[in-house]
Automatic annotation (TrEMBL):
<dbReference type="InterPro" id="IPR036584">
    <property type="entry name" value="FliS_sf"/>
</dbReference>
<keyword id="KW-0966">Cell projection</keyword>
<keyword id="KW-0282">Flagellum</keyword>
<dbReference type="GO" id="GO:0044780">
    <property type="term" value="P:bacterial-type flagellum assembly"/>
</dbReference>
<feature type="region of interest" description="Disordered">
    <location>
        <begin position="58"/>
        <end position="82"/>
    </location>
</feature>
<dbReference type="Pfam" id="PF02561">
    <property type="entry name" value="FliS"/>
</dbReference>
<keyword id="KW-0969">Cilium</keyword>
<dbReference type="InterPro" id="IPR003713">
    <property type="entry name" value="FliS"/>
</dbReference>
<feature type="compositionally biased region" description="Basic and acidic residues">
    <location>
        <begin position="61"/>
        <end position="76"/>
    </location>
</feature>
<protein>
    <submittedName>
        <fullName>Flagellar protein FliS</fullName>
    </submittedName>
</protein>
C-alpha cells in the first residue's frame, strides 16, 4: 500500500497487524486458542472488506471504460418500448 496516497489507511492497517502479531505471540506463548481465533476472525473480516472494495473498484472501472469507449457501429439504432 502506498503510504503517501493512503496514509491514514496504511497507518491503521499497520496498527491492526501489530495488534494481531501480539495476539498471535500470546496465543503461541501461552498455548491459548482464543487469541488465535480472534486473529482468524479479524483476518476473515479484513479479507471480506478487501474483496468488497476490489469488486466495487472493478465495477467502477468497467463503467468508466464503457462510458469512454466509442459506440460500436449499428448501436445508433433506437428501440422504442411499446
Amino acid at each position: 500500500m502506498d503510504h503517501d496516497q493512503e496514509k491514514d489507511l496504511a497507518d491503521n492497517l499497520n496498527e491492526l497487524y501489530q495488534y494481531m502479531m501480539r495476539r498471535l505471540t500470546r496465543g503461541n506463548f501461552y498455548n491459548e486458542k482464543d487469541p488465535l481465533n480472534e486473529v482468524i476472525r479479524m483476518l476473515t473480516e479484513l479479507k471480506e472488506a478487501f474483496d468488497r472494495a476490489t469488486e466495487a473498484n472493478s465495477l467502477e472501472l468497467e463503467t468508466k471504460k464503457a462510458k469512454s469507449e466509442p459506440q460500436k457501429k449499428g448501436s445508433d439504432k433506437v428501440s422504442l418500448a411499446i
